[in-house]
Amino acid sequence: MNLWFATLLEAALIIFLIFMLVYAVYSLFATISFAPYVHSGKKKILTMLDLANVEEGMTILDLGSGNGDLCILAATRGANAVGLEINPLLVWLSNFKSKRKDLTDKATFVRADLWHYRFPDMTQVVFVYGMPEKMRPLWTKLKNELRPGTRIISHAFSFPEVSPEKEVGNVRMYRL
Question: How far apart are CA 112 and CA 63, in angstroms?
């Protein structure tokens, strides 16, 4: 094997290991602060968008937007979507996908900790896939920052002591 090729392989391995370390640290932090990244399939995302009745001109917020798929699909329906994500690698990936699909005017992604982020008042729908122990304080934050009537779509976990307005499988719609 040539020396330059071995050096190139070694550099690629080092870059990969650094990437994995950064990803692991941010994933751990995300797990502690709200939830780890868990991929939702397209069928589940479409169920969530349909339950929320997402349509053109709506403003939606995805808390823990992961790889950006929900916001991008909402944008293809004409919604203005903002994804909040704490992991900078997932924010970069989401913005890359949005740009590649020419949706940057409809789907934007922000690196932010949702607990230190002021939710936009014009938000009409919020999507959540959070850990059970974080749902109660999140409900309080949503009620304090968003308008009455805002729809909250939760995948998998429910808000304690709050009854959903609608349910499809493990996807629930609440209204503030």
Answer: 10
- Rounded distance between C-alpha atoms, residue 119 and residue 114, angstroms: 8
Checking if the pLDDT of 148 tops 80, the result is: yes
Rounded distance between C-alpha atoms, residue 130 and residue 122, angstroms: 22
pLDDT above 90: residue 30:
no
pLDDT tens per residue across span 84-121:
999 888 999 999 999 999 999 999 999 999 999 999 99
Token duo for residue 130 = 């959070």
Backbone angles phi, psi at 16, to 5 degrees: -60, -45
**81 Cβ neighbours under 8 A, 6+ residues apart:** 59, 60, 61, 62, 70, 71, 72, 74, 75, 106, 107, 108
Q: How far is CA 93 from CA 11, 125, 127, in A?
A: 22, 23, 19
Domain 42-175 classification at class level: alpha beta
Q: What are the sequence ranges of the domains in the chain?
A: 42-175
